[in-house]
Design goal:
This protein is of the alpha+beta class. The protein contains 18 helices and ten strands. The protein has a six-stranded mixed β-barrel. It is a multi-pass membrane protein.
Length: 427
Amino acid sequence: MTDTTSRARAGSSRPFGAFEWLLAMRYLRARRREGFISVIAGFSFAGIMLGVAVLIIVMSVMNGFRTELLSRILGLNGHMFVRGVGASIADYDAIAERIRSVPGVVSVMPLVDGQVMVQSPQNASGALVRGLREQDLKSLSVVADNITVGSLDGFDEGGVAIGSRLAQNMGLTVGDSITLLSPRGAITPFGTAPRVASFPIRAIFEIGMSEYDASFVFMPLDEARGFFRTYEGVSALELRFQNPDKVNDFIRPVMEAAGPCCNVLTWQQMNQSFFSALQVERNVMFLILTLILIVAALNIISGLIMLVKDKGRDIAVLRTMGATRGAVMRAFFISGASIGCAGTLAGFLLGLAFCLNIETLRKFLSDLSGTELFSPEVYFLTHMPAEVDPGEVGAVVAMALFLSFAATLYPAWRAASLDPVEALRYE
């Protein structure tokens, strides 16, 4: 025996060497009479692929949905509100100056807000009026950067800015007048008379969140104080911080700076139930869709068990020719793991491609079916978002690979435990 032949045989007998890979790939390419096993392998591959792709797509869409909602809610509403105890805040400029001195506070904006009835010759609807100074409104990029008609220049001189959906529902545009009716009116012997006033529309904005675009009206601060009769005070001070997720760390410093006449309310307290529901839905969807991967792993087990049973004679012959139990076990492990790895890779690429083109696909399916697949009135957003989290994608891929590898262990052990004498006794 030459040295070259010895080295080749030694290389082929190494763990996961060329012999074991050759044997595994040979068993994966089933012949015609073994076609049923090949079909099971195909279904296992498809199950792993779809499971990984669906998990990536669903988790990315829910991440994008939460991020878009959070950015719009915080972009419009701020991170913390300081409100007066039972009344408006009178000395708001002095209180705002003290709060600005708290480390971590980015901005403090006085505002007046209240609910009104909006009327036009075509329609009527409820809305939320928020009175702000021109410089403060322009600092809200979610509004100032999304003006579709008109301008915010000279906003303090009079007029209002309304959302695009509200303008559409009311049949109004820039230059028209909008009538606002507030229950905070004058007190008469016959009760409280509603206050009614008309304001010219100076600008129309489109945030991209249908609920806000259909219900928000911005008004100059001085006009809002007169309309809602807060006199020299304001309804609240709106605060913004560098990191909104750590807003709870600022509650005590802000309360100490504001004084005992004020209460503090954070964005997490105002939207706790909404974001808690999103988190619960996200976790439940992850658990449910993981079942697809488990079913695909069970298909790998059943397919390999049938393959071991069908190849019993071949395994016995290989054992009598010198193949070790470890070599047989690794060969069948490679067969099952190859299906899992290929399916995981295909699912990863499919899910990533879907997420990167999800809005294009949504429009195509909507046009094809003639229905609205992502209604803004139901889902609040005007487009379907998707945000791919590398950590989550890595966890999905790792879980798919783990299930695929674990599914191959028992069939591979069965193949390695096969007794050659029993297998060849009746041959």
